[in-house]
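Retry 2 of 3 after timeout on previous attempt. Resubmitting structure tokens to design endpoint.
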């Protein structure tokens, strides 16, 4: 196991189907009475074995984990938490916004599936394709053992763990209750999926995202940009320096996405689905067309297009017009 900072170990947990690509980085932080685990990986036997083996190499047992912080409720971060709780007795801390969504997301999923279908239909996904996109995430349910958080976070609290003092920084956008952990004295940021060194974190508009997830995301970039950080410990890919530069790259990416969407709409009015078909997408580092994406990524693409379209409307660069049942967007007349 990799000690990325004295007192902080990095676990590499594989992702189902993809192996090591986009492996999840969980972090173990040494305390006086046990270890703090940040994020858990997927609930698969492969990820569980990887965690157990890496803990074993460091001479740590599950019983030595005294608490768990989950940066956000996506299955790659939260999925295995229930199993770690069963073995360790540790309590889980999660942002209060996401605690409220656990049941609809991972236990009683029917109403969320219905809301997703309504949203996709409104935004032009054709009926034959709708069931595929609507149910694309149902399969990941098997990789999550839901557990109720013992502690709810709201941002602003400080978690003291051994020689570390982590401020909880609420960074909504990639998910509504995403949190980063910041040690001001040590100038370390555990960035979760908010900031990754290579990949641009997905930001999508969906039934649990709120109305302007991209606006939230960009404001959350500004929040972390203002922190003095020497080293970023992300939840995927490699530990990196140069946080401010990375924030600027991500900002530029979203500015370019918006420009590409406006350019696509200059060809004529389109639904969010049609916009998604007209712009390129990056999956696992490879640029591809919408048609080449797997169903779940198609859904993420439509929701990402929507996340960019709505603020474009607020900026008066795009207008909503009522189409034949579906919502259609048009480029505003050039000033
Ligand atoms: Zn995520
Ligand atoms: Zn992730």
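Retry 2 succeeded. Sequence:
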């Amino acid at each position: 196991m990799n000690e990325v900072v004295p007192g902080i170990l990095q676990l590499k947990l594989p992702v189902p189907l993809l192996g090591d690509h986009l492996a999840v980085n969980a972090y173990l932080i040494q305390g006086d009475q046990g270890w703090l685990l940040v994020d858990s990986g997927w609930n698969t036997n492969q990820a569980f074995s990887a965690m157990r083996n890496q803990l074993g190499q460091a001479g740590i047992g599950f019983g030595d984990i005294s608490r768990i912080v989950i940066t956000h409720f996506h299955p790659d971060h939260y999925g295995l938490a229930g199993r770690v709780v069963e073995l360790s007795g540790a309590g889980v801390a999660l942002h209060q916004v996401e605690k409220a969504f656990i049941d609809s997301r991972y236990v009683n999923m029917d109403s969320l599936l219905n809301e997703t279908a309504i949203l996709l239909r409104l935004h032009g996904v054709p009926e034959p394709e709708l069931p595929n996109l609507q149910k694309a995430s149902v399969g990941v349910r098997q990789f999550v053992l839901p557990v109720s958080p013992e502690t709810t976070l709201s941002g602003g609290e400080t978690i003291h763990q051994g020689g570390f003092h982590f401020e909880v920084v609420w960074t909504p956008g990639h998910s509504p209750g995403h949190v980063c952990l910041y040690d001001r004295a040590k100038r370390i940021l555990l960035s979760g999926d908010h900031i990754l060194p290579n990949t641009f974190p997905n930001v999508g508009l969906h039934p649990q995202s709120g109305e302007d997830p991209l606006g939230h995301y960009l404001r959350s970039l500004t929040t972390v940009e203002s922190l003095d950080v020497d080293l970023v410990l992300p939840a995927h890919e490699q530990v990196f320096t140069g946080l401010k530069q990375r924030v600027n790259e991500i900002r530029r990416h979203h500015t370019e996405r918006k420009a590409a969407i406006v350019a696509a709409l200059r060809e004529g009015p389109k639904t969010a689905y049609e916009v998604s078909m007209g712009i390129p997408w990056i999956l696992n580092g490879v640029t591809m067309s919408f048609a080449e994406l797997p169903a779940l990524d198609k859904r993420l693409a439509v929701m990402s297009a929507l996340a960019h379209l709505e603020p474009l409307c607020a900026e008066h660069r795009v207008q909503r017009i009522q189409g034949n049942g579906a919502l259609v967007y048009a480029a505003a007349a050039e000033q």
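Attempt log closed. The two ends are 57 Å apart (CA to CA).
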